[in-house]
Write a structure and sequence with these properties.
heterodimer; A: mainly alpha; 0% strand; B: alpha/beta; Rossmann fold; Alpha-Beta Plaits; 2 domains; 4-stranded antiparallel beta sheet; 11 helices
């Protein structure tokens, strides 16, 4: 490897200028970066261990440990619980977005992205979208395991699909909270710890495990304002049957609202962190 | 004085503070197109901070900088089209293969899928990484990572390339290799900003050198000018036969007019002005039939340069937050 062979092989500067102003730049760049996240996930499949085992463990604990006492019939309880567990596991899976983002920023890979002529938000959007595979894996595992235990969809495949999409959309929205934490906080473990603290009251303070009317008044109030409870009601309605319109509308409004608030905050914090 | 337009990049009075620490206390840096500016200084002198401002990663608290005539703060997006950045710590994605790393950058630079692949293959071949192209970067050696990192900064054929201590931590052979790369980049018309802690590296590569310390430029000039300021070079001779040390001393005395020193048994050193003297010493040693184990023209070390310029050594790093 000598200087002369290098010089001979040096690519000349005759290439066409970069067309950075091509339309849909943000979408294309974000997708390219989401592809990067996907490659990383597939290269270390153990990263999928949590999203694979978590739904199984939650179902086992809730249905077999508590189900008998709560509803008297484990099978009936499985029907009640599974759509809500889907929301819970996907939300927990979304924590990884902020954690891995924090790791990336610390490592300096993001310095390169920041020195490229791409939108500042592209790496953030990319890491949010890149976690789609984690969400899909946890949903597939949950339904497969549920079916093995005797769970059956009460509505139809399309409605169930809609429930999955609603859950994923909401998880993307919640991911932006994780992204904000990932950009602002100093270590991946701090991000993880804080994200769990946020998610515990949001996921357990709901109608996931027991009907709301069995709760004390102050907790009923919390379930009433908690967006995760809306999403759980919506998925329950879409998968096993029941009221749908109200919860779905509120879930979608929350999804849009969370993104509208936290995405700009995260991008702004990311810009400042430079 | 050359016109402003012929500068590839230009920084004036850059100031950057991190809390109570002043990383840059008003520095000027500039390089003409197609040249190498060496920024020489110890750890914590502000080299990385200056590079990060010129690379649009940091905003200066005062002063201004332009790349290709475009302001690094106001026209940051435009500047990013012109630059390539290779950091002190190789910022490649460890989980991605060499090809995937470079293809990703190509896609982000709006190359089509096929063009991005082709450009990746071209750069991997150029940097001798073709055999490792399909392996994750975490399996690469330190030198391979540096090369991949540099390749990643070249995907978009940047006009201005920032190399932040590209050889720190590399063994001498790998260093020479990196020097070859820098030279061919310049042959290709790129302008390079190279930060380094080694005077010999700046001497070997740079057209002009700015010496910085505590966030200020304390000297600027061509390598020759700087070496004149920094003090003379030293000829080092170690003859094969120790008994001929007297003859060597005579030759050195005759060639340089200075009195040689004997810092260790069998080794003579003498200060010289200019490179011509060295040639004459070599010729006279040859004429006298004296074989040598070691014969070198040594540059003053960074420490010696600093001592001459500032009165203190280069070993007092100031704490600078690189982030």
């Amino acid at each position: 490897m000598t200087t002369t062979t290098r010089a001979a092989a040096t690519p000349t500067r005759t290439a066409p200028p970069r067309a950075g102003s091509r339309p849909f730049g943000l979408a294309r760049h974000s997708l390219a970066l989401a592809g990067r996240s996907l490659i990383k996930t597939l290269r270390t499949p153990e990263q999928l261990l949590d999203v694979t085992l978590q739904p199984i463990i939650f179902v086992l604990i809730f249905v077999y440990l508590l189900g008998g006492a709560i509803s008297g019939s484990q099978h009936a309880y499985l029907e009640f619980l599974l759509p809500a567990i889907m929301v819970q596991t996907v939300l927990f899976a979304s924590i990884a977005t902020g954690v891995s983002l924090n790791t990336d920023i610390e490592k300096g890979v993001f310095d390169r992205f920041r020195s490229l002529p791409i939108a500042r938000s592209a790496p953030l959007v990319g890491s949010v979208v890149g976690d789609l595979v984690r969400f899909v894996v946890s949903i597939v595992v949950l339904f497969a395991f549920g079916y093995a235990l005797g769970f059956r969809i009460g509505t139809d495949v399309l409605s169930t699909l809609a429930a999955c999409l609603l859950t994923i959309a909401f998880a993307f929205a919640v991911s932006w909270i994780g992204v904000l934490l990932g950009v602002v906080m100093r270590s991946p473990s701090a991000v993880q710890g804080t994200a769990f603290l946020v998610l515990f009251p949001l996921t357990f303070g709901t109608n996931m495990m027991v009907p709301t009317d069995t709760l004390p008044g102050w907790l009923q109030w919390w379930v009433g304002v908690n967006p995760v409870a809306d999403v759980m009601s919506a998925t329950r309605g879409l998968v096993v049957g029941g009221p749908v319109a109200g919860p779905v509308t509120r879930s979608l409004l929350w999804t849009v609202g969370l993104i509208a608030v936290f995405a700009p905050l995260a991008v702004r914090a990311y810009r400042r962190r430079a | 004085m050359v016109g402003a337009m012929s500068y590839a990049f230009e920084a004036e009075g850059l100031v950057k503070r991190f809390g109570t620490t002043t990383a840059l206390a008003g520095i000027d840096l500039a390089a003409r197109r197609g040249t190498v500016l060496g920024v020489l200084g110890p750890n914590g002198a502000g080299k990385t901070t200056a590079v990060r401002i010129l690379a649009t990663l940091l905003r200066p608290d005062a002063g201004r900088a332009t790349v290709g005539g475009r302001d690094v703060v106001r026209d940051a997006a435009e500047v990013r089209r012109l630059i390539g950045l290779t950091g002190q710590y190789a910022s490649v994605d460890e989980d991605l293969t060499g090809t995937q790393n470079l293809t990703l950058i190509g896609r982000l630079l709006d190359l089509g899928r096929r063009d991005a692949k082709a450009r990746a293959a071209e750069l991997l071949a150029w940097f001798d990484l073709t055999d490792a192209a399909g392996r994750p970067a975490k399996t690469y050696s330190g030198g391979m990572r540096r090369r991949l990192d540099l390749a990643a900064s070249l995907v978009g054929r940047p006009e201005v390339i920032y190399l932040d201590e590209p050889t720190t931590g590399l063994d001498p052979a790998k260093r020479e290799e990196m020097w070859g790369v820098v030279r061919s980049l310049v042959d290709d018309g790129s302008t390079v900003l190279l930060t380094t802690q080694y005077l010999d590296e700046a001497d070997a590569l740079a057209d002009e050198i700015s010496v910085i310390d505590h966030g200020r430029v304390i000297a600027h000039g061509s390598p020759a000018e700087l070496k004149r300021i920094a003090g003379s070079q030293t000829i080092v001779v170690r003859p094969t036969e120790t008994e001929r040390i007297g003859d060597v001393a005579d030759i050195l005395r005759a060639s340089t007019g200075a009195e040689p020193e004997l810092p260790r048994p069998g080794l003579l050193t003498v200060p010289v002005e200019g490179d011509a003297t060295f040639t004459s010493v070599v010729r006279r040693l040859d004429d006298a039939g004296i074989g040598v184990v070691e014969l070198a023209l040594r540059l003053p070390s960074l420490d010696e340069v600093f001592f001459t310029l500032t009165g203190h050594g280069a070993e007092e790093p100031t704490e600078v937050a690189a982030a």
